[in-house]
Amino acid sequence: MIRKNKYNARKTQMGGITFDSVREAQRYLDLRLLESNGDIQDLEIKPVYRISHKGEPICKYIPDFRYKQ
Asked: Where are the domains of the chain?
């Protein structure tokens, strides 16, 4: 059984990186342009934030991108 994406997004590969959607891949290109222009810096793809409470891991949050302005 093939699992459908909640938003009917299609995985897209660009520059050896697989993105969850065409929009995410386009956003990556936009961010790369901003980074090359010096508007943002330290662009990262899918950084992992581990969430814990009183030293016990609860979950992890994985946004699409992280960067500094």
From this structure: 12-68
